[in-house]
């Protein structure tokens, strides 16, 4: 897959995931949020909880899950900490980290609290 095709496939996967969270009653508050250390694909809220979502797309959910690496996890935690500074309760906010896997058919599998600290 070329760089441009891969980029657009990633954007499409993020759109699918954002719609999935929206339909399940979450409020999507940010897409591709950029912090100093990187980017968070989707940020949603449900009640007082803020959910940071890493989206991975591949042919299968298993292949997508295998693409979540230690470097990305550290980057996500760093960016989430920066974003939490903008929330009313700051670093004491209730948060979770989900991984959203999207396969080649557009089917979504959400792993809630996948990156529990």
In short:
The chain has helices at residues 3-23, 61-66, 70-84; strands at 27-35, 38-46, 49-57, 94-102, 108-111.
Structure, explained:
With 117 residues, the protein is α+β, with helices and mostly antiparallel strands. The protein has one domain: Trna Endonuclease, Chain: A, domain 1 (3-Layer(aba) Sandwich), CATH 3.40.1350. The protein contains 3 helices and 5 strands, in the order αβββααββ. The chain has helices spanning 3-23, 61-66, 70-84; strands at 27-35, 38-46, 49-57, 94-102, 108-111. Strands 1-2-3-4-5 form a 5-stranded mixed beta sheet. β1 and β2 (38-46) form a beta hairpin. The longest helix has 21 residues, at 3-23. It holds the Pfam family UPF0102. Belongs to the UPF0102 family. InterPro entries: Restrct_endonuc-II-like, tRNA_endonuc-like_dom_sf, UPF0102_YraN-like. GO terms for molecular function: endonuclease activity; nucleic acid binding.
The parts where pLDDT drops under 50 for at least 5 residues are none
CATH topology: Trna Endonuclease, Chain: A, domain 1
The share of residues in extended strands comes to: 25-35%
CATH top level label = Alpha Beta
Radius of gyration: 14 Å
- The termini sit apart by 34 Å
Q: How many individual helices?
A: 3
Q: Give the number of domains.
A: 1
Large-scale geometry: globular
| Structure classification | alpha+beta
What proportion of the residues is helical, as a percent range?
A: 25-40%
CATH architecture: 3-Layer(aba) Sandwich
Query: Order of strands across the biggest sheet?
Result: 1-2-3-4-5
Instruction: Give average pLDDT, whole number.
Output: 91
The strand count comes to 5
Main sheet overview: 5 strands, mixed
**H and E string:** HEEEHHEE
